[in-house]
């Protein structure tokens, strides 16, 4: 008994008195709430989760209890992987570090100019910090982004030469689509297409107007073909005046 209750049981010769069944208010051992209990019940519990912090950093998921929380934690780890993008979904393994092979999420790797992409498992690329190596076309892509007005023509020439070579070998269809661009850039495409013995035509409306280039039997890459380049460009410009004014 608590020492402040009136004794209601009969006289006895036992060393200890029987339990006191008086109704009192008790706070649960977890400190969550107060409820009624018998006087003799020194420690009571409730149905609320304990949620005391564990050494691993998680909160105890046991129901209100007395004493120290169980050290074994079976919750998901949730520590971010070395890439900082995902959380470890393995069972809590404190105090051991996360395994490098634990993160099975898919990530996208890019080269320095972001022109080349590749999918890979996060666990296979953690910590190496190296981007993909730039591949074919990346140099031209970087040039275009750095100074599109100056280097766009060089990029068009490279695209046309690659297109003509593959088309003449039958590796690709004889038509190539240049994505929508400005009217100035389209004129460059038309000019270079003519210079390389190809036909070209623009389709669509601004800002989605694009250019199709078709290789012909006269499409060529050797020096002999380019000897009359200036003459053909002069004639081409006269024909394209109408296109430029559209």
UniProtKB/TrEMBL annotation:
The keyword DNA-binding does not apply. GO terms for biological process: negative regulation of transcription by RNA polymerase II. SUPFAM superfamilies: R3H domain (SSF82708). It is found in: Nucleus. Pfam families: R3H (PF01424). Gene3D superfamilies: R3H-like domain. SMART domains: R3H, ZnF_NFX. One of its GO terms (cellular component) is nucleus. Its main location: nucleus. This is Transcriptional repressor NF-X1. The keyword Repeat applies. It comes from Geodia barretti. Residues 150-217 form the R3H domain. Belongs to the NFX1 family. PANTHER family: NUCLEAR TRANSCRIPTION FACTOR, X-BOX BINDING 1 NFX1, TRANSCRIPTIONAL REPRESSOR NF-X1. Keywords: Metal-binding, Nucleus, Repeat, Transcription, Transcription regulation, Zinc, Zinc-finger.
């Amino acid at each position: 008994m608590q020492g402040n209750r009136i004794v209601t049981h009969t006289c006895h010769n036992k060393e200890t008195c029987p339990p006191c069944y008086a109704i009192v208010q008790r706070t649960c051992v977890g400190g969550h709430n107060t409820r009624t209990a018998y006087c003799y019940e020194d420690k009571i519990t409730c149905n609320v989760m304990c949620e005391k912090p564990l050494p691993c950093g998680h909160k105890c998921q046991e129901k209100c209890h007395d004493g120290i929380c169980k050290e074994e934690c079976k919750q998901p780890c949730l520590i971010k992987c070395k890439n900082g993008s995902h959380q470890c979904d393995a069972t809590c393994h404190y105090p051991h570090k996360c395994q490098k092979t634990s993160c099975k999420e898919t990530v996208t790797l890019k080269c320095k100019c972001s022109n080349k992409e590749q999918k890979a498992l996060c666990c296979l690329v953690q910590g190496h910090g190296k981007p993909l190596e730039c591949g074919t076309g990346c140099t031209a892509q970087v040039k275009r982004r750095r100074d599109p007005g100056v280097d766009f023509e060089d990029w068009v020439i490279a695209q046309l030469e690659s297109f003509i070579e593959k088309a003449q070998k039958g590796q690709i269809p004889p038509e190539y689509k240049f994505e929508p661009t400005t009217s100035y850039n389209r004129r460059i495409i038309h000019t270079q297409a003519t210079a390389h013995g190809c036909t070209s035509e623009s389709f669509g409306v601004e800002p989605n107007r694009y250019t199709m280039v078709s290789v012909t039997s006269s499409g060529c890459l050797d020096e002999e073909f380019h000897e009359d380049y200036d003459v053909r460009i002069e004639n081409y410009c006269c024909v394209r005046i109408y296109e430029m004014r559209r």
